[in-house]
Every structure is written in C-alpha cells, then in structure tokens.
User: Fold this.
Amino acid sequence: MSSKQREPGFSTLCIHGKKHLDKHESDRPIRAVSTPIFQSSTFAFENVAHGAAVFRGEDPSYVYTRLGNPTQTALETELAYLERGEAALALSSGMAAATTAVLTCCRHGEHIVSGDTLYGGTHQLFTQTLPRMGIEVTEVPADDPQNFANAITDKTRLIYLESPANPTLVLTDIGAVAEIAHAKGIPVLVDNTFCTPYLQNPLELGADIVLHSATKYIGGHGDTVAGILVGKQDWIMTARMEILRDVGGCISPFNAWLLLRGLKTLPVRMDRHMESALEVAQFLSYHPKVSEVIYPGLKTHPQHDLAARQQRGFGGMISFMVEGGRAAGEIVMDNVKLCTLAVSLGDVDTLIEHPASMTHSTYGEDELRTVGIDPAMVRLSVGLENVKDIIADLRQALAKC
Ligand code: PLP
Assistant:
C-alpha cells in the first residue's frame, strides 16, 4: 500500500478546506476596527479534559452560543460599562430579558411589586403568565415610592419599574424606591428603555438591575429585536447559567453586532431625538386641537423636576390627546404621511401608535383608566427626520380632525 497521504475528498474540502487556506494566515494580526461577527454556534475544545474543565466552570472558554459568544461578549462588556454595572447579559428580546430577570429572582410562591404602567407585553407577563407559574405580581401607581412600600410582603423578591413608563411617561423616584426595597433586602429592577444609558443610569441611582429593550434606541434603526440585563457579576452569572441556559432566549451574533453598531451613534441620535421631541411637544401644546401633551421636558409635566434631577435629558417619546377623544386621535393616526403608523419606538423613523388598541391592548378598558392610559392617548416616538417635516405632517393630519 502507498504511504502517500490521501487527498481529502471534495465534500471534506468543502467543510474543512478553509483550515488549509488559513494555515499561512494564522500569524497575521487582524485588528478589525468593527467588532467581527462570530457567526458560530459551537466552539472546539482542545481535548476531552479541556471540555470537561469548561463544563465544570474551571475554564472560561466559549462552548456554545446560547451561553456565550465573542460578539455577544463585546456587546455585554460595552453595555455593562455604559450602565456602570459589573456585568451584562444580552438576550433575544426585551421580553426575554424580562422573563429571564424575573425567573432569576423569583420562584413558585413568591411575589413581585411593579409599577402599574408598563409596556403591555410586560403587563401580560405579570398578570397572565407568571400567575400560572405561581408567581404573583402587585402593580401599584409608580409616582409615589410609598405605594411600593405598602405592597411589599414577606414573599416579595423583586421590585420592577419603568421610568419613564410606557406610554404615560410617569416617572418613579428610583433612589427612594431603592431605599425602601433595600431596607427589606429586595432588589430593584429598572426598565431603562426610554432613557438609554445616555440619559439615565439606574444603578447609580440605587437600582440593582437594569433592563433594556435594545430593540429601541440602542439598536435605533428598526432592524433588530433584542434585550439587555445589567447587574452584579454573580446575579448575571446565575441569569446566564440557570435561566438563559434552560429557557434559551439568546441573542444571535449578528443582532449583537447590529447593537454594537447602533451604540456607536447612540449619543448623537439621542441628542437629536430630544431636540426634535421638545420642538414637537411645544408645537402640540400650542395646537388648538390638542387637549393634552405629556412630555417630561415640558415645565407643565407634573414630574418635570424629578426628570431634570434623575435624568440627563428628557428623551424622544411624547404622548398626547386630541380634542374629540379617541375618534379624533384615530383621524390623526390615519392621516399622517411622514410619520409611520407602527408600534416600537426609538427608531430613526418617527413612529405613531395607539396604545389602547395596540401596545397596551393587554390592559382591559377599566385597567387602562385606572393606570392613566387614556383610551384617546396617541404615542409618538420622534425620529431623526427634519423636525420641520415632522411638525408639518402632524399639522396636516390634525387639520383633518
Ligand atoms: N420594555 C419596554 C419599555 C418596551 O417598550 C418594550 C417593547 O415595546 C419591551 C420592554 C419589550 O421589548 P421587546 O419588544 O424587545 O421584547
């Protein structure tokens, strides 16, 4: 038999060929300016002993992208830093982040106190899905920290709030709630989606966990669904190795990369969102057909002072009501041409929507009124178009009422 080495077959070369090409490349430094996308689901071990050490948690090598991936790590490192936290966990959506956070903190028979105005999906999780799993949630008006104190029981394991809340823009005094919660050893989670780390750092205000629907301002371009948790190293490790591992809401490396790209322009975009939002809010508040404008940057907002103290800016979200109520609001939403009638927010595009029938349709009619989501409310996410064009579009739509 010939000792000549067999040429690999064509199908083997299709799979392993690149390794031969790479042979002479391995010493060449890469120094990519944009973080590379590690589009790999799995990572090789040196030998069985190495694999076993990784599984025992004694070696930090990557194993499998559900648990970690270099592109995810780059994003997590960046967000932990921006949110002034020890560690972060990137997930497939804001709701995956909420579910992972809740399941990390609570078991069957335990309890959460949350603000009563939440993104409608979170409200659904709290009032429908978690109770089926034996986790009860008490939702309280979030503008008074004492309401959180009054709802805490000996089973409470988490305080959960959005500040500013979607879509009412009600703020919570995060420091005051953290003080109340910490006196009872309970962690506080703040959904910081509306502010982003550019405008607010809940951990510095006393919170323990920060959540983002990174789908919104962090991604910023309406092309990615993703979520982020930031907190203490140990807590993030438990969330990753117990809940993410079992529930599986991992982010794809490509989506992690899109968020890294979005982060590069976050401050520039937020500055413009805010500048335009203030101008649009002022336009709306002087418009005779608009009965109410809710924007924390307006001096008329009841929590303007808290917003100025707690945040480094007022954000790009506005809610408003049109004279004539829900029907009149629908005329505006049906007649905008530049603004897009769509849910989500924080995009370069200006998005307009009706919370009562869309994002917050998980609240019953009575619940909507109790928590202050007027059925006539219109929510506007002010985008990055020329603000004069946004205002002209709203003016022509309001003229149709
Ligand atoms: N938190 C807030 C404030 C939101 O507005 C949303 C979605 O709109 C979520 C969480 C859920 O995020 P996702 O849609 O990325 O799952």
Summary: The CA atoms of residues 317 and 384 lie 12 Å apart. Residues 93-95, 119, 121-122, 162, 166, 191, 193, 213, 215, 225, 227 surround pyridoxal-5'-phosphate (CB under 6 Å). The chain has two domains: 10-38+69-263, 267-398.
